[in-house]
């Protein structure tokens, strides 16, 4: 089976959705962290939608969100999910396939 080729961040448009829980401290950190990562590494190449689960509880079921904060990369495909406050920027960048995953056996 061939391994997936990571998208080229220079030519890709990233569509991200972050599920948070109101004004919880962990959710607030996740919002700040992902905005910083996007502005630093994806300037003008991303759309970020922040969804408060208290305002849109239906979205939890539809998108199979089991914990918050949860970041979902909708595009480029394939879909990717990350849970937590997104404070480890290297892990987030690797998870979003913006940089190669240092733990990958390639």
Automatic annotation (TrEMBL):
<feature type="domain" description="KaiB">
    <location>
        <begin position="17"/>
        <end position="98"/>
    </location>
</feature>
<dbReference type="InterPro" id="IPR036249">
    <property type="entry name" value="Thioredoxin-like_sf"/>
</dbReference>
<dbReference type="Pfam" id="PF07689">
    <property type="entry name" value="KaiB"/>
</dbReference>
<dbReference type="InterPro" id="IPR039022">
    <property type="entry name" value="KaiB-like"/>
</dbReference>
<protein>
    <submittedName>
        <fullName>Circadian clock protein KaiB</fullName>
    </submittedName>
</protein>
<dbReference type="GO" id="GO:0048511">
    <property type="term" value="P:rhythmic process"/>
</dbReference>
<dbReference type="InterPro" id="IPR011649">
    <property type="entry name" value="KaiB_domain"/>
</dbReference>
């Amino acid at each position: 089976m061939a391994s997936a080729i990571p998208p080229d961040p220079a030519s890709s448009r990233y569509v991200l959705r972050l599920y948070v829980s109101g004004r919880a401290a962990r959710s607030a950190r996740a919002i700040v962290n992902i905005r910083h990562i996007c502005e630093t590494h994806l300037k003008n190449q991303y759309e970020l939608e922040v969804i408060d689960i208290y305002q849109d509880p239906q979205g939890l079921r539809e998108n199979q969100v089991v914990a918050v904060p949860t970041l979902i990369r909708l595009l480029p495909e394939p879909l990717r999910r990350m849970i937590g406050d997104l404070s480890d920027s290297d892990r987030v960048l690797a998870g979003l396939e913006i940089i190669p995953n240092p733990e990958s056996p390639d």
